[in-house]
Structure formats: C-alpha cells, structure tokens
Amino acid sequence: MITISLCMIVKNEEDSIARCLESVKDIADEMIIVDTGSSDKTKDIVGRYTSKIYDFQWIDDFSAARNFSFSNATKDYILWLDADDVILPEDVEKLKTLKETLDPSVDSVTAKYNIGFDEYGNVTASYRRNRLVKRVNNFKWYGFVHEYLAVGGNIFNSEIGITHKKIKHTPKRNLEIYRGKLEQGAEFTPRDILYYGNELYDHNIYDEALEYYNKFLDSKQGWFEDNIRVCGKICDYYQSINKIEEARKYAFRSFEYDTPRAEACCKIGFSFLHEKKYKQAAFWYEEATKLEKPKDSWGFFNDSCWTWLPHLQLCVCYDKLGNYKLAYEHNEIASQFRPNDERILYNKKYFEKLGFS
User: CATH top-level class for 4-164?
Assistant: First the structure.
C-alpha cells in the first residue's frame, strides 16, 4: 500500500481549513501545511491535525510556495489541495481503495475537480487535474498565479472527485499580482496572457480582456481546450451586448480546435433563438444532443449542455414551430435530468392542457 503526504499552502483560512483537513485525515499519512502569513486562527486550527506547519514568506508567487510545500513531503505520493476543497465521503472511500491498489509505476493520478453545482447539488462544471504525484519524481509547479503542476510519465485517470466549496473571496488579489508583474516588466507566457485575460474578464474589464484573449488565440501556442474555452467566453460577452453575429463567429471558431462541443452548439442555438429563428436554433440544439462528451478530457465542461439544457430549449423551439409533439417529448427528456425544475413542471402543465400526458 502506498503512503500519502498532503501538501497545502494556506493564509487566513480559519473558516474552511478544518473542514478540508477533517475530510482528508483518514487518507493522509502526513500533513504538510505551509502558511504564507496568516493573521487569524488558521495555524491554531491546523495544529489540531499536524505539527508539520511551515512558514513561508509571501513573494507573490504561488508556485514558489507550493514547491516549498512539496519539498517537505516524505511519503510515497503527494496529494495537494486548497483550503476550500473537500473530499466527500464517497470519494474518500475511492481514495482508500486507490491507496491499497495503486500500481507503484504510476507517476500521477488525476481526479475530477468539481467546481460548479446546481440547486440540487448536481455537478454542473468540472475538469481534471493531476492530484496525486509520485514524490521521488520531483515534479515542479510553474506560474506565479494560476500555477500548474508539470508532470509526465505514467498517468492514471481516476474517477475520484475533489469538491470545491469556496467560502472566502479575494477578488483583486490575482489581478493585482498580474499588474504588478507587468509593471516590473515580466514577460508573460501564453498561459499568463490567458489567465490575465480571465482576471480582467471576471472583473468586468471587457475591452482589455478581449484584447488579451485574442492575443492568446492569435499566438497559436495555446492548449486546444483553453482555446475552446476562450472562444466560449468571448461568445458569451458578445451575446450579452447583443452582438449576435460576432458571438456566433467565436462559437464557430471553437470548431477549429476540436470536434464541435455541446457548449458551442448551445451558444449558436441560443443566438438563433434570440433572433427568433427557431428552425436554425432547433438544428443546433439537436446537434448538441447528438454529441458524445469526450472521455478523460482535461477541458472545462458545462454538464447542462450535455444533458438537459438543449432538450429544454428544443421544447421552446418546437413549440414555436407548432410541432407540439416534439416539444412535449423534449420536455420529458429534460425532466429525466431535472424533475423538479420549475420551467419543466410549467411546461408539463402546458402540454397537459394540449392533451399530452
């Protein structure tokens, strides 16, 4: 059976750190907690779980702090988490099984990172990350913000989920770090350009965000999944300001990087629905229902686009086109995914009055 070092970097996480450590205490053989300058009770709380607490002077570089945490690990594999992550009981059991059965030739284990949820607790957005890595390989973190762990070798894609439950928000921290680096004359990698664009977008600085997004796409050095996601975000922006043709251009551009995704098809469908072009909208929503979600992909996915959303929108389109039978059928399919959705229940009553049940 393998042994696991939990490695974390924290700062002022008194509201969430106990929840995180409690969820992983039966998995980790040691806990390495690096504090980057807490002024609250974080270190006191951590002390209930481990004595291996290290101080690290913050230098606006997340990778430096994470690499320091990794350097203190002593077990076979390193598991890393953020303070607002938790491992749910069913995933704890999967991790326990993995500890007992993992082939020691595996260099890294990926897990699903569940970051979005609907009102029923269902996962709506997720992507993969390398979560458990072999210590002796000395894998390193790169990037001062939105850092990534560079791994290689034998990688195993697990079905374990890490659940993100954000409590604390630090809205301008990353944006300020990026701007500080620009002022210092730092040369941004394509990845830095992308994530700086994301920070600008999230702070509603759209003109500058689009400038950096297009710079990222035009570099032709981006990972194809990032290219697809950027196209989606630019599309969303243009739809929000009613520049529908410009929005569609970026949805179609995403097809250049991989086979069409349900997210893009739904965006195109929505653009035609907005223009009351119901036949065209129905075509693209139908396309979304036919696609198979890529297996073991590391990209970002909006699960609603791969399940209930296109069917609910097809209900609207076919109703507008006068094909009530098809509209009813798609509403029924949507209800299999979201049986308590108020919109779907409203549609059910509507169709009952039309004689469908």
Answer: alpha beta
How is 43-94 classified by DSSP, letter by letter? HHHHTTT-S-EEE----S-HHHHHHHHHHT--SSEEEE--TTEE--HHHHHH
- By CB neighbour count within 10 A (0-12 exposed, 13-18 middle, 19+ buried), where does 279 fall? exposed
* pLDDT at residue 295, rounded to an integer: 80
Global pTM reads 0.84
For residue 265, the Cα-to-chain-centroid distance in whole angstroms is 20
Rounded Cα gap, residues 53 and 308, in angstroms: 46
**What ranges in 153-260 are assigned the alpha helix state H?**
173-183, 190-202, 206-219, 224-240, 244-253
Characterize the bridge pairing of strands 108-117 and 123-134: antiparallel
| Residue 292 DSSP symbol | P
12-43 pLDDT, tens digit each:
999 999 999 999 999 999 999 999 999 999 99
The one-letter amino acid code at 194 reads: L
Q: Where are the extended beta strands (E) located within 281-331?
A: 301-302
Instruction: List the one residue out of 334, 332, 339 whose CA is nearest residue 357.
Output: 332
Q: How many other CB atoms are found less than 10 A from the CB of residue 186?
A: 12
* Alpha carbon separation from 354 to 42, 329, 330, 335, 349 (Å, rounded): 60, 13, 15, 18, 9
The first and second tokens of residue 4, run together, are: 């696991």
Place of tokens 């913050």: 58
Report residue 328 CA to chain centroid gap. Answer: 33
- Closest by Cα among 149, 152, 143 to 177: 143
Of 105, 123, 122, the C-alpha closest to 114 is: 123
Taking only the tens place, the pLDDT of each residue in 299-316 is 889 999 999 999 999 999
